[in-house]
Amino acid sequence: MHRFISVLSAMLLALSSRGAAAESREIVLNYADPHGVALALNILQHAEPLPSWMREQAMSAESESGQFAISVQRGNGSEQETKYLFASKRLATESAGEAVDTPELRMDAGLGQAIEVQQASDARLDHPICGPRREQALPCRLSDLSRNVVSLELRHVDRLPGKLKTLLDARNLMLDEQAVKRVVVEADSEHVIQHIDFIGMVRGRDEIIPAPDAASVFVVRLSGNGVLSIIKRSRDASVDSNDIKYSFEE
Amino acid sequence: MLTPGLGQFLFFTVFFVAWPATAQETSASSTILNVSSYMMPPLQTWAPIDGSADPNVVITEAGATDGDLGFRVLHLRSSVKGTKQAAVDLARSKLVQTGDILLSFRPLWDKTLAYAHMQLGISHSAMAFIVSAGNEQFVMTIESPISYSSPLNAPEHYADLDAIHIIRPTLDETQKRNLEKWARLIMSNQGRFGFFTDYSLPMYKRGISNVVTPRDEIRILAEIALGKTNATFESYCSEFIWSLLGLRNCDTAAFDGSCISPIFDTDEGMLTGIVPKISGDAGLAQGPEAALIGGKVADTAKRAVLTGSVFVDILTDPSQLAGRMSAGHLKVAEASRENMKIINAYYIGGEPELLALEINKSVIENVSPTSFLIRSNAGMDGLRYVGTIVFDRH
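^ inputs. structure came back:
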């Protein structure tokens, strides 16, 4: 009896612990906060040093860290242009009452989606979160998830572009301008980012990707501690057509 | 000694840990399927089903806010997306049958560009077969590119595929066995099958010898599969599936071409541009309209949706579109922009027949991956909507 209960208790604990470990969640930023995707991609790729007014948001305490909002304006034609507005309480406090320049930064990762980021006043911080729906009123504020993704990148931004180039050269990879870009965040139950996958960003130089909606098997991964790597996706199980049977062959 | 009370407690505890309540698991339900109503199939086109035979596939229904439209959602575990286990779970659920058409659905195309709206967010088509290996049954696809044929785990495609529509042709057991035999031949000669990238140029328009009509495409597929010719079958995804379905009445052991039967009951078996009230409002551009009509949306509301939400560009910022569609699709959408405006004007003008006929003159008979959903939405050709697979259970 005691042995039975011990075994059963062990089973229950094992099931419980597996449940807890399994709470790591994968969040596709394209759905959760689509405006964060372009920002995350461009920061990862931006080769020039980022201005201090952007970088220091990653160094600030959360209560003082910056927020990104977006607004949409009309370009030269009828096309829309999205502008990312960056504001932080600390910066606003320091410049309170003073006329300040509103520096802008143009970021072009060479993936066909250049963006502009402009420093803004603290008034931008009170906007509602953008969310996934297009009919969300603008301007709006990027989600905490996007902010966490960007913060992680900004903490390691000095090393990222160079590191990425090294990885691409070593693996005979290149930037991919064709595939749709996905940003997938793996976070634990405490919302701590374990890693971020950038899908569709790179491809093999000799890789054939025939279908228009397909993406390379190569994925850029940024770990929670800032390590950049290349992941190669493969089939979890290979099926030889000679080993399968259709029902007429049963 | 194990008392009855303790035994019951332990039983329910184990049960709770082993089988979490499905309501909580699916409550997120697919916010990814929170799309415009015209992208949803009409309720009257849903195929009757018996329910899921496997606890790993949970069914819910999500209706539109306007119209008799919605999704029957097949919830799989998020961990199985892009893995063979998804194929195993679906086979066990018995919700997928041999011959079912799997359509890659891109919810992120909603509220972007007119061309993407017209395509109902559909980017690819494949056919499913229930196969076995040893004691295990699973879904095996056949599709073009042929290299993507897999138990839903070709990483270039299925790793990032968040939603899959299942469209069921009306097939009897003989037809299913015929399709299996053709699939066996095709998969045994994969080197004979290539991918053609230009979806605007069907095979019968490419100047290929002896392929001058859509039906010729079906015939040449059979001849290549049977090894009667050394030619290769280069097709885009929808062309491949349409051609394969055209062989459903053909026995591989006795093929003579007379059995060929295109799945679409139109003049040439393919679809055309806008067919004014002749073929059930189910031309290549009429997917949204067919959905709204099937969903019993009033004419004025239908026209408002088509002119204000469908055939208009809503999101034009390239920096934001890159996270929603590929450069290839963007290019096609841009090239189609003027045509989309013409179609918009057609609906604004009350769908004048003369304008439709003019538009049709510039469109050749073709089949897109969306074609199967268009005809299903219109209740035609024996095509029915089974459900939409998503991977959102934890």
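The longest strand of chain B covers residues 122-133. Chain B touches chain A through 72 residues (CB under 8 Å).
thumbs up if we can close this ticket
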